[in-house]
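Hi there,

I know you've been waiting on this one. I reran it after we fixed the sequence typo, so this is the corrected version. Both the input and the resulting structure follow.
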Amino acid sequence: MKPLPFRTGIAYDVHRFHPDRPLILGGIKIPDTPGLEGHSDADCLTHAAADAIFGALALPDIGKHFPPGDPAYLNIDSQKILAFAKEAAGQQGYVLGNLDVMVVAEQPKIGPWIDAMRTRLAETLGATVDQVGIQATTNEGLGSIGRGEGIAAMATVLLIQQEKSE
């Protein structure tokens, strides 16, 4: 069977708040809000985006490529992780069709930063801003996210096979 000229991926990431770290989401530093705990910059939005790409390619997840606890990746900018995922897609002959991310958080309200996040992610992915969607919702007070203990993000991606020049 001939492979389809596109692949999809889906991913989820969650990090708990850490009071002594800056909050980075979608590659943007959000002021006056506790950051997230993690070995990298803990940008769960960008992690979900990268894992969606890895999933679409049937590759292992972020933890396999950037093992937590490896000092080489301590506080790494997650845009580097996303760029690595984009490069992996390119090596397999795929480009981004679109990326859509849903952020789930009781706080902060991310609406004021969504345009900047979309721009930053598009730059990292070599895409246009209209190929990157970001939405936000709350968990209506339910569960750990609803109690304001952290932030979660879900992402889905469509990769399109590049035309081969002959």
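Quick highlight: The chain has a mean pLDDT of 96.

Best,
R. S.
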